[in-house]
Amino acid sequence: MSHNLNGKVALVTGASRGLGKHISKTLADAGATVIVNYANNYKNAQDTVDFIESDGGKAIAIQGDVRDEESVKKLIKQAEDETQGSIDILVNNATGPQPVISIEKLAWQDYLEQLEFFVKAPLLLTKAVLPGMKEKKNGRIINIGSEVVQLGTPNHSNYVMAKAAQLGLTRSWANELGSFSITVNMINPGFIPVERHEAEDTSEYRSGVPLGRMGVPQDIGNAVLFLASDAGNFITGQSLSVNGGNTLGI
Ligand SMILES: NC(=O)c1ccc[n+]([C@@H]2O[C@H](COP(=O)([O-])OP(=O)(O)OC[C@H]3O[C@@H](n4cnc5c(N)ncnc54)[C@H](OP(=O)(O)O)[C@@H]3O)[C@@H](O)[C@H]2O)c1
Predict the structure, then answer these.
(1) Is the CB of 42 under 6 A from ligand 1?
(2) Kind plus residue range of the DSSP H or E element containing 128
(3) How far is Cα 39 from Cα 166, in angstroms, rounded to an integer?
(4) Whose Cα sits closest to atom 17 in ligand 1?
(5) Which family does it belong to (predicted)?
């Protein structure tokens, strides 16, 4: 079964660094033209584009705040104009800060801020790309979740709650869009050190991972590619842990 994405257009949100950068590279290496979305850091987004182009891939950096309806509309319009096509693969990956807060200190606003990234943004983006996907009777929506939903990580209910909500919409949208051959799935990374984790000690986490190592961003890129490609044709509404088995005991 082919992992070839020649002729496809993929949009990866939050692709200026971290997992999004490597998801973008993996999809571009497979032949997709990738829209590298970013919010603030043009230079980092351009680094992702250069990283992709250095191996002969195709990518375009486009700014857009995924929490803002007008900004999302502009982002999709610009992506469609520049690629002269519509989005075939949407990867909802962007995240803002994920503050650790005890119940006593939590405010309702802390929950809303996480929902903006993991529920509102996927909704705005999915609504914007659906006309093109429905017309083609084909599409891929891949939500990047987290193992924290299974772990029930304490003092992080703001983040855990929003990722759990993302799982609910993944399953409901998969049912709703199945008849258009649009698949909707969720990938749940374990702790995958990226730029923002540079100073963190990973030894304790690593000691609990059955596969005995930390994940690398490429592990998530590979899983996204599998679901985005024809190999994932008959998979929808699923939640896939990519964490070396870290949640096996749950
Ligand atoms: N890394 C992990 O260990 C891990 C584990 C489990 C789940 N995850 C999930 O994986 C995803 C990626 O995480 P990460 O660690 O790679 O994050 P990251 O390194 O912090 O990168 C976040 C990205 O989101 C972008 N962004 C921020 N606000 C935005 C907005 N309003 N609109 C559009 N883009 C925005 C940033 O762009 P700018 O640079 O332009 O601000 C950046 O490209 C998230 O959904 C996260 O919850 C990560």
Answers:
(1) no
(2) helix 121-136
(3) 21
(4) 18
(5) Belongs to the short-chain dehydrogenases/reductases (SDR) family.
What are 58's strand-pairing partners? 33
Residue type, 15: A
Asked whether residue 249 carries a pLDDT value surpassing 70, the answer given is yes
Quick count: other Cβ atoms within 10 Å of Cβ 7?
10
On the question of pLDDT at 1 being above 70, the answer is no
Instruction: Locate the domains of the chain by residue range.
Output: 9-242
Percent of the chain with pLDDT over 90: 98
Looking at CATH, the fold of the domain delimited by 9-242 is given as: Rossmann fold (3.40.50)
pLDDT at residue 197, as a whole number: 94
Q: What is the pLDDT of residues 42-90, one digit of tens each?
A: 999 999 999 999 999 999 999 999 999 999 999 999 999 999 999 999 9
Q: What's residue 250's pLDDT?
A: 86
Is there a catalytic annotation at residue 111? no
- The DSSP element (H or E) to which 226 belongs, if any, is helix 217-228
Q: Is 192 in the pocket of ligand 1 (CB under 6 A)?
A: yes
Rounded-to-integer distance, Cα 85 and Cα 137, Å: 14
**Pocket lining: 65 vs ligand 1, CB cutoff 6 Å:** yes
Question: Given 38, 111, 159, 205, which residue is catalytic?
Answer: 159
β 89-92/33-38 pair status:
unpaired
**What is the rounded distance in angstroms from the CA atom of residue 162 to the CA atom of residue 114?**
6
For ligand 1, is residue 75 a contact (CB within 6 Å)?
no
